[in-house]
Design goal:
Blueprint (H helix, E strand, L loop, with lengths): L20 H4 L10 E2 L17 E2 L5 H13 L3 H12 L8 H13 L3 H15 L24 E4 L3 E2 L4 H14 L1 E5 L5 E2 L1 H16 L3 E5 L1 H8 L11 H14 L2 H15 L13 H4 L15 E7 L4 H11 L4 E12 L1 H16 L3 E7 L1 H9 L7 E4 L2
Parallel strand pairs: 3-5, 4-6, 5-7, 8-9, 9-10, 10-11
Antiparallel strand pairs: 1-2
Helix pairs in contact: 2-3, 2-14, 3-4, 4-5, 6-7, 7-9, 8-9, 9-10, 12-13
């Protein structure tokens, strides 16, 4: 799901010093910044902003967001952690998902599995959904190979309805021609009866065409459909059927069996049988931000740490972008961007924007994503956080 978020308000014409003074001063300060409940964890597509509820919360949390991002950018991991945990341990503070993801990603970036696992329990209770999985990002991973034969990856929009027929039909065409397709539901917020019918018909058609279907972020659709089915009330059959199908993609066999029994009693007919359709781990980790039906040529990537002027990296990016209108940059192996490099990156991306090019920074960790918000990089590129 690609949405525009504004974790805090700031005057873009005023440079951010990152000295820590803002976090410590309270008297005579301006109104506290806002932070958003980041249900999609994505900083793009301003047209969808109205779909997100923005809630003002405890004074100073927006400043913590800024300060923690800059501390991490400057290599002060411990101070950034202390700043974040102080907010979490404050019983009077109401913490949005943006800060949650920053802390969880900080634990992953610093290899603190025990602390991560202790926090994700609270995360699951707070947001009533599965937390992000543990992944040790402190280890320098091998460079990801780009596989030009990988299935097309398509990102569905925020809402599915009867008006989505043309896009759903296009999915069927792509799946049939390529024999495999990956569908990312990460943007999904709502689906109506018409959308349910179309989506279920698409899955049936792709199965008939023997096309392999991988669904990423299937839990989004499960969460959207679950409140809409009522045991004993024989309504919304398409929603029931699609929910049962999606539970196969989330691997929730017990929940599937319970719902199947409810379905049989409610509609007095046999429910579908269980068949796990959970994607392989490598497929699960991949997400999409580009809505085009194919990924095209190999993506550019940022890896490790970007520091200083990072002139060589920018030069390579310029070369990669020369003949492209859409510039996809894989940031899954990018651990840190320092303050100077962020400024250099902003200038480069602003130049691309002025040329009418679209830059998509994919799978950014939440600590780097926060700095990109502070430095307004999200204003010159689409920035999507990793799960």
């Amino acid at each position: 799901m690609a949405f525009s978020f504004n974790p805090f308000k700031k005057n873009s014409s005023t440079p951010f010093s990152g000295t820590g003074e803002a976090a410590s001063s309270s008297g005579g300060a301006s109104a506290p910044p806002e932070i958003t409940e980041l249900s999609a964890l994505d900083f793009s597509n301003a047209s969808q902003q109205g779909a997100i509820e923005v809630t003002e919360i405890a004074s100073g949390i927006g400043v913590v967001y800024e300060e923690a991002a800059v501390l991490y950018a400057n290599g002060n991991d411990r101070d950034a952690e202390h700043l974040l945990t102080a907010v979490f341990d404050d019983p009077t503070a109401t913490v949005g998902e943006g800060l949650w993801m920053m802390l969880l990603d900080l634990y992953r970036l610093t290899g603190q599995r025990e602390r991560f696992e202790a926090r994700v329990i609270d995360y699951a209770r707070r947001f009533e959904r599965s937390p992000p999985p543990w992944e040790d990002l402190s280890l320098q991973p091998a460079k990801r190979r780009n596989d030009s034969s990988s299935p097309a990856l398509i990102n569905l929009p925020a809402a599915l309805s009867a008006q989505s027929a043309q896009q759903i039909q296009q999915l069927c065409v792509i799946g049939r021609k390529s024999g495999a397709i990956r569908i990312d539901l990460g943007r999904l917020r709502s689906i109506d009866d018409g959308g349910c019918a179309l989506f279920k018909q698409m899955l049936t058609q792709l199965a008939a065409d023997h096309a392999k279907v991988t669904i990423l972020n299937a839990s989004r659709l499960v969460d959207a459909l679950a409140p809409q089915v009522k045991p004993g009330l024989a309504e919304n059959r398409e929603r029931w059927m699609l929910l049962l199908e999606m539970l196969k993609y989330t691997g929730e066999s017990e929940r599937f069996e319970d719902l199947a029994v409810d379905y049989a009693v409610t509609f007095e007919e046999s429910p579908p049988s269980w068949e796990s359709k959970v994607p392989a781990p490598a497929e699960q980790r991949q997400t999409a931000t580009d809505e085009s039906p194919a990924r095209g040529e190999e993506d550019f990537s940022f890896e490790g740490e970007l520091a200083g002027s990072c002139s060589e990296t920018i030069r390579k990016l310029d070369e990669y972008a020369a003949n492209r209108q859409v510039i996809a940059v894989d940031c899954s192996q990018l651990r840190r961007v320092d303050f100077v490099a962020a400024g250099t990156l902003f200038n480069a991306l602003a130049a691309f924007q002025a040329q009418g090019k679209l830059v998509i920074l994919q799978r950014v960790n939440a600590m780097v994503g926060a700095l990109m918000r502070v430095m307004s990089i999200d204003q010159v590129a689409q920035v999507t956080l990793r799960g």
